[in-house]
Design a protein that fits this description.
By secondary structure, this protein is mainly beta. It is 0% helix and 32% strand. It contains no helices and six strands. The strands form two sheets. Strands 1, 2, 4 and 6 form a four-stranded antiparallel sheet that branches. A two-stranded antiparallel sheet has the order 3-5.
């Protein structure tokens, strides 16, 4: 679920012990282009499909405003 007006980013980190979180591009449809960096909420459920920067790691969805 999203909150109207709140912006969300998808971030990736290769390890919980090392490395910084980095933004990754995403799409809002399975076959969409991975061109989005931010999603603005509208009080509806959102699904995103992110680029996979490495074989192992962790994703997070971050509220940016």
């Amino acid at each position: 679920p999203t909150v109207t007006g709140v912006r969300y980013d998808v971030r990736f980190r290769p390890s919980l012990a090392d490395g910084a979180w980095a933004a990754v591009p995403f799409a809002t449809s399975l076959d969409g282009a991975l061109t989005l960096n931010t999603l603005t909420g509208n009080n509806a459920r959102a699904t995103v499909f992110a680029a996979v920067p490495a074989e192992i790691g962790f994703f997070a969805v971050v509220r940016t405003s």
